[in-house]
Amino acid sequence: MSELSALNGAAFHGTVTVEDAGLQGMIALRGDLASAKLAKAVKVATGLAIPAVRKISSEGDKAVAWMSPDELLILAPYEDTGDVVAQLNEALAGEHVLVQNLSDARATFSLTGAPGALREVLAKLAPVDLSPDAFGPGDFRRTRLAQVAGAFWFEDTTTARVICFRSVAEYVYGLLCVSAEDGGEVGIFG
Amino acid sequence: MLILHCPYCGVDAEETELHAGGEAHLKRFGPGSSDADFESYLFGRENPKGVHFERWRHVNGCGKWFHAARCTATLEVFGTYSAQVLEPPQDIRDAITAKRPGWSWRDIQ
After folding, report:
1. What Pfam families does the database record attribute to this sequence (chain B) (predicted)?
2. A36-61 burial by CB neighbour count: b if 16+ within 10 A, else e?
């Protein structure tokens, strides 16, 4: 277990505020998402239902995101990940699944700012339609951020979360900062 | 810019989110096969001007492989479909026939 997040709380204030979101518990759950047993296990461990394709469901400090047709990403407080993994493993004993704590494999960033500026900072980096009609709170998108893989979602209209591999955290932080630099506004989302 | 619809996550992904996987529907000839079959499996590839079938992977996305039918001359995409099939499904063939009557690819028509 690492004690420090990838960028140790770094923050940048530009058109939006980019912050290292600290240690975030993340669990990969692979298996048959249509299975009732898996749905029940996720419900027990997080209190949440399995999200629809490319969606994220969240409540309190837990969230479940759709990663691929056979993979979910479960977010939980960093200190609780061991318990959640144990709960999932217990509920899914004998099933063909994979439960893996990936908290230390990834980095999380928090972006806060005006809704338009927030969308713009991400739109400059990813080949994703970020117009409010196409992407909003509750949507989850795995994509690329410039040259590396990443994913993001909006917690609400003024807060976005970005995750990437820890090994490229510094690169992604740099990207987000450049994208959010003052004077770089395009104003396409108002 | 090529834009392909990922049949697994439903994203209209553009080329930079995808990875090309070469020709589709290859049949593997491994140990015990004849030299000619093995050679054609390793090296024999279509190089059509027109309708072509390819494998693609949504690498910066859901990570899944899928198949795409497109035209190599115009980059028109006729459709994408599951990776778990050995030949193009009928709806994809119909979509191609509607736009390229008389097309053929290998022994598929």
Report:
1. SoxD
2. eebeebbeebbebebbeebebbbeee
Cβ neighbours of A169 (radius 10 Å) = 21
* CATH code matching the domain that covers B3-99, chosen among 3.30.2270.10, 3.40.190.10, 3.30.70.1520, 3.30.200.20: 3.30.2270.10
Taking the CA of residue A82 as centre, how many other CA atoms within 13 Å lie in the half-sphere pointing to its CB? 2
Amino acid at A168: V
Q: For residue A69, which phi and psi values (nearest 5 degrees)?
A: -60, -15
Closest chain B residue to A127 measured between Cα atoms? B14
Instruction: Give the C-alpha distances (Å, rounded to integers) separating A46 from A42, A74, A133.
Output: 6, 8, 29
Task: Give A131's contacts in chain B (Cβ within 8 Å).
Answer: none
Interface of A with B in 53-72 (CB under 8 A): 53-54, 67-69
If we measure between CA atoms, which residue out of A1, A175, A153, A159 comes closest to residue A67? A153
Q: What angle do CA B69, B75, B81 make, to 5 degrees?
A: 20
Angle at which helices A169-179 and A115-123 pack, to 10 degrees?
A: 130
pLDDT given at position B1? 84
pLDDT per residue as tens digits for the range A148-174: 999 999 999 999 999 999 999 999 999
Written out in words, the top-level CATH class of the domain with range A25-104 is alpha beta
ipTM: 0.88
Query: What's the predicted TM-score (pTM) here?
Result: 0.91
The residue in chain B having the minimum alpha-carbon distance to the alpha carbon of residue A151 is B61
Which residue of chain A comes nearest to B15, CA vs CA? A127
